C-alpha cells in the first residue's frame, strides 16, 4: 500500500524527501526499561483522567510532555509563552553536555515524540527515520504502553503488541466516540478492509463528470479510503478522522454539532452512503450467437442478453451449476420493490441484480427480511421485503409477548421492568437466540397498532410475522437498549448472552428449505454503550484478523482482551461473519497451490472477484468484466492501473475455481495479454456517452423545479430508476427504461407500504416527458400532491 501524507494523523514524517536520523534517541535504549514510571497504575490514572501536571507549573494534558530518559521521566510543558521543556533540556544539557540525553519527549495524549535537540518529530512506525531496530522497538513499546489501559492480564512489556497492523486508536473530536466505535468495527471487517487495501484500484476517484465542483460525487469514499489506509498501513498508533467525520456531518444533519449520537444509526448512515458511492464496475453485454459461439459483443441497456449468455451459450458440462450460482448470488441486489406472493423466476432475480449498481457494501452487509401482515377479518396477506444493514432486535420483546399473554398484569410488569432498567437493577438475562426468536414470532396488531388492510380498506386487527430471506456475509445485530415509553424512558440493562462461535441463523429463515447451506456465524466485533439514556460513552471491541486476538478500542486507547472478557460484555451492536471450516480449508489449499506453482501457465483474474472468494461464502461466478470491456479488450479507463486490478494465478488453480464457481462468460486474460493497450472502441463510445451525460444534466437542470404552478400536477417516478439515472449522469452506465412497477401494482394501484423519497419521488411534467422520450417505460402515475396514496389526478 502506498504511504500517503495525511494532514490529520497524529504522526507525520519530518521530511518525505530524505530520511532523517536523531543522535539523541539512539542512546536511550541503553539506559534501562522503556516503560519505567509510565507503566504504573497511578500514572495511568493521571493520564486517563487528564490530571497529569507539569512538574514545574500547573499545565495539564495535552500541553505536557514526558522526558523519555529512563532515569528522569520528568513531566514538562511547552507553550508559546513559556517552555519548561526548553528549561529542562538546557539545565540537563549544561550538567551533562557530552551526552545531552534529556532531549526526547513524548506527549501522553497524542503520542507524538519530539526531539528538542534536533527540532523535529520522530515516528518509530515510519520508515522515514533512520533508527536502529533496537531503538525503534524501544519507542514502540513506550507508545504502546501509553496507549494501553491498565490491564491485569498483561504482566510484562514482552506481552505488548507493537507491530500488528490495525491497532490504531481514533482521536475523539468532541463526543465522537459513537463514530469511533462504529469505524473500528468496520475497519476490522476483513472483506471490507481487503477491498480498500488490496482492491483500492477499483475505488472510484473524485473525477467529476458533469458534477458541480462544489459538490463532488465521491464525498465519503475518499476520506473513508484514507481512514482505512491509516488504520492498516502501520504508520501511526493514533489517527484523527477529521475529514471523514466532517463529510458525514455534511451528509446528515443528525450528526452536526457536538452532542452524543447513536452509534448504530451512524453505522447505517455511513454504510448507506458508501453503498451509493462505491458501485462495482458494470458492463452490459449483448452476445450474438452463431453455432454456439460468441461472435460479437456490444453494449446493451438491459440485462436480458447477458442472462441469455448463462442460459444458452454455456456448455452444460463446463458450466454446470452456473444457473444456480446466478440465482443465489445475483438475487442479492438492491431493490425497493415490494415482493409479491408469487415466486420470483431466475430471470427476474437476475434482472433485479442488474437493475441498480451492486457495491462491496451491499454484498457484505445487506440482508433482507420479509414482513407478512395477515388481516384477521378478510384473511388477506400483504408481503413486503425490507433491506437492512443493521438488524434491529428488541431485547425485551420476549417479556412483552409473555406479558400480552398474561393479560392486564402486562402493563404493570412493563412499568416495573422499566423502573428497574432506569435504576440499573434489571437483573434479567436472555440469550441472543431468544431475542431473534421473538423478532420472528407472530405479533398481534390490535388497539392503537391496528393495520390498514389493503383488501378491506379499513383498520383491522392483524397478525405480523417477520422472517429473514437473505443473510449477509457480515451480520450486524443491534440490541435495542433504549426504550422511549410515554410514562418513562430508560436504558434496558438486561444482559444478553451471545455466542462467540457458531451462531446458527437457519431457524429464523422464512422456510427451513430456503435456509442457505452455510448459516453459521462467528463474532468479530462488538459495540458497547456505557452510561444511561441521557449520555454515555461508546467503546468498540474487535478481533484482529492478523494475530486473531481481541482488542478494546476506547478512543485512542487500544488494549488487548481475552474471549472470556468479551463474552461478559453488555453488547449494544454485534458484528458476526459467516464461517465454514470446509470453506477455510478450500482457501488454504488454493492459496498454497498459488504460492507453490511457478512453472505452469498463468492467467489473470479480477482482484474484486478474488477478494470475494477469500472472504465471502458465495463469491459468484468468476468474472473479468471488472477490467475487460464488452469488446474483449482492456477497459481504456482502467488500463493505467491494470497491474493493481488483477491477480496472477496458475492455470490449474483457475480450472479448479471455474469447476466450482463457473464463469460469467468473460474472456480469460493470459499473461501474453498483459501488455495490451486500452480499447479504442470503448474510448470513442465513452466520449459519446459523456456528451449525452452533459446534455441530459444540463437539460434537466434547466427544466427541473421544486414547485409547480396551480393547475399543474406531479409525475411520480421510481426512486431506484432516478438513482440509476443520477449514477449515469455522474459517469455510470445507462439506466435503462423507466420502471414504476417498483411502487405500482400491475393494475396501476399503489403497492402498500411505499415511502416517499425512498420508494418514489416526484418530477414535473417537463422532466417526466424528457425522461420518457429519452428512455421510455412507465407506467404513468399522476398526483396533485407528492403522495402516492392521494387521489389520482385527471388531466
From TrEMBL:
Residues 20-141 form the UBP-type domain. SMART domains: DUSP. It is found in: Cytoplasm, Cytoskeleton, Microtubule organizing center, Centrosome; Cytoplasm, Perinuclear region. Its main location: cytoplasm. This is Ubiquitin carboxyl-terminal hydrolase. It comes from Gigaspora margarita. InterPro entries: DUSP-like_sf, Papain-like_cys_pep_sf, Pept_C19_DUSP, Peptidase_C19_UCH, Ub_carboxyl-term_hydrolase, USP, USP_CS, Znf_RING/FYVE/PHD. Pfam families: DUSP, UCH, zf-UBP.
Amino acid at each position: 500500500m502506498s504511504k500517503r501524507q495525511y494532514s490529520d494523523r497524529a504522526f507525520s514524517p519530518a521530511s518525505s524527501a530524505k530520511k532523517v536520523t536523531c543522535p539523541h534517541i539512539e542512546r536511550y535504549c541503553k539506559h534501562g526499561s522503556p516503560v519505567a514510571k509510565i507503566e504504573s497504575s497511578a500514572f495511568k490514572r493521571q493520564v486517563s483522567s487528564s490530571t497529569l501536571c507539569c512538574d514545574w507549573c500547573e499545565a495539564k494534558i495535552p500541553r505536557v510532555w514526558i522526558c523519555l530518559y529512563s532515569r528522569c521521566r520528568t513531566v514538562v510543558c511547552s507553550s508559546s509563552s513559556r517552555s519548561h521543556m526548553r528549561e529542562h533540556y538546557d539545565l540537563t544539557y549544561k550538567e551533562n553536555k557530552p551526552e545531552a540525553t534529556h532531549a526526547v519527549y513524548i506527549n501522553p495524549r497524542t503520542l507524538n515524540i519530539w526531539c528538542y535537540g534536533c527540532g523535529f518529530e520522530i515516528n518509530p512506525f515510519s520508515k522515514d527515520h533512520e533508527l536502529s531496530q533496537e531503538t525503534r522497538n524501544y519507542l514502540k513499546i513506550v507508545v504502546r504502553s501509553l496507549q494501553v489501559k491498565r490491564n491485569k492480564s498483561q504482566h510484562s512489556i514482552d506481552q505488548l503488541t507493537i507491530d500488528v497492523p490495525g491497532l490504531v486508536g481514533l482521536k475523539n473530536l468532541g463526543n465522537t466516540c459513537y463514530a469511533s466505535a462504529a469505524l473500528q468495527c468496520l475497519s476490522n471487517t476483513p472483506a471490507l478492509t481487503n477491498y480498500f487495501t488490496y482492491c483500492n484500484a477499483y475505488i472510484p476517484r473524485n473525477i467529476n463528470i458533469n458534477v458541480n465542483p462544489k459538490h463532488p460525487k465521491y464525498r465519503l469514499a475518499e476520506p473513508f479510503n484514507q481512514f482505512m489506509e491509516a488504520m492498516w498501513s502501520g504508520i501511526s498508533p493514533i489517527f484523527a478522522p477529521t475529514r471523514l467525520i466532517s463529510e458525514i456531518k455534511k451528509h446528515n444533519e443528525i450528526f452536526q454539532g457536538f452532542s452524543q449520537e447513536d452509534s448504530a444509526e451512524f453505522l447505517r448512515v455511513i454504510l448507506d452512503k458508501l453503498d451509493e458511492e462505491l458501485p462495482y464496475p458494470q458492463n452490459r453485454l449483448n452476445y450474438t450467437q452463431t453455432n454456439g459461439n460468441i461472435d460479437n459483443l456490444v453494449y446493451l441497456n438491459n440485462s436480458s442478453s447477458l442472462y441469455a449468455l448463462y442460459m444458452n451459450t454455456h456448455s452444460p458440462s463446463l458450466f454446470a451449476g452456473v444457473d444456480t450460482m446466478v440465482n443465489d448470488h445475483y438475487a442479492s441486489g438492491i431493490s425497493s420493490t415490494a415482493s409479491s406472493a408469487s415466486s420470483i423466476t431466475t430471470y427476474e432475480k437476475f434482472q433485479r441484480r442488474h437493475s441498480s449498481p451492486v457495491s462491496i457494501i451491499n454484498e457484505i452487509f445487506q440482508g433482507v427480511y420479509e414482513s407478512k401482515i395477515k388481516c384477521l377479518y378478510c384473511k388477506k396477506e400483504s408481503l413486503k421485503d425490507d433491506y437492512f444493514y443493521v438488524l434491529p432486535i428488541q431485547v425485551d420483546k420476549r417479556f412483552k409477548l409473555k406479558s400480552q399473554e398474561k393479560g392486564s398484569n402486562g402493563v404493570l410488569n412493563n412499568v416495573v421492568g422499566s423502573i428497574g432498567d432506569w435504576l440499573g437493577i434489571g437483573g434479567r438475562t436472555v440469550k441472543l437466540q431468544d431475542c431473534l426468536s421473538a423478532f420472528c414470532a407472530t405479533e398481534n396488531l390490535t388497539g392503537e397498532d391496528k393495520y390498514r388492510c389493503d383488501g378491506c380498506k379499513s383498520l383491522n386487527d392483524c397478525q405480523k410475522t417477520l422472517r429473514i430471506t437473505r443473510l449477509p456475509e457480515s451480520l450486524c445485530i443491534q440490541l435495542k437498549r433504549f426504550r422511549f415509553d410515554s410514562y418513562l424512558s430508560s436504558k434496558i440493562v438486561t444482559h444478553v448472552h451471545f455466542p462467540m462461535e457458531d451462531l446458527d441463523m437457519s431457524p429464523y429463515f422464512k422456510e427451513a428449505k430456503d435456509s442457505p447451506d452455510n448459516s453459521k456465524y462467528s463474532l468479530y466485533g462488538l459495540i458497547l454503550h456505557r452510561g444511561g439514556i441521557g449520555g454515555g460513552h461508546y467503546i468498540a471491541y474487535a478481533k484482529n484478523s492478523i494475530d486473531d486476538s481481541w482488542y478494546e478500542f476506547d478512543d485512542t486507547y487500544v488494549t488487548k482482551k481475552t474471549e472470556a472478557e468479551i463474552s461478559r460484555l453488555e453488547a449494544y451492536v454485534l458484528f458476526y461473519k459467516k464461517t465454514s471450516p470446509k470453506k477455510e480449508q478450500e482457501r488454504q489449499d488454493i492459496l498454497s497451490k498459488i504460492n507453490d506453482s511457478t512453472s505452469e501457465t498463468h492467467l489473470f483474474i479480477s482482484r474484486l472477484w478474488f477478494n470475494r472468494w477469500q472472504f465471502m461464502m458465495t463469491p459468484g461466478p468468476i468474472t473479468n468484466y471488472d477490467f475487460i470491456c464488452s469488446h474483449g479488450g482492456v477497459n481504456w479507463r482502467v488500463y493505467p492501473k491494470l497491474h493493481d486490478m488483477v491477480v496472477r494465478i496458475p492455470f490449474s488453480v483457475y480450472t479448479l475455481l471455474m469447476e466450482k464457481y463457473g464463469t460469467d462468460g468473460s474472456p480469460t486474460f493470459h499473461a501474453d495479454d498483459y501488455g495490451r493497450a486500452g480499447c479504442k472502441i470503448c474510448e470513442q463510445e465513452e466520449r459519446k456517452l459523456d456528451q449525452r451525460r452533459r446534455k441530459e444534466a444540463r437539460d434537466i437542470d434547466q427544466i427541473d423545479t421544486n414547485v409547480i404552478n396551480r393547475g399543474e400536477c406531479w409525475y411520480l417516478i421510481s426512486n431506484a430508476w432516478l438513482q440509476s439515472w443520477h449514477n449515469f449522469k455522474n459517469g455510470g452506465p445507462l439506466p435503462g427504461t423507466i420502471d414504476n412497477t417498483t411502487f405500482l401494482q400491475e393494475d396501476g394501484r399503489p403497492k402498500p407500504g411505499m415511502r416517499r423519497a425512498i420508494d418514489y419521488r416526484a418530477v414535473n411534467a417537463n422532466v417526466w416527458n424528457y425522461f420518457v422520450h429519452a428512455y421510455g417505460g412507465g407506467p404513468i402515475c399522476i398526483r396533485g400532491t407528492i403522495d402516492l396514496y392521494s387521489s389520482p389526478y385527471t388531466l
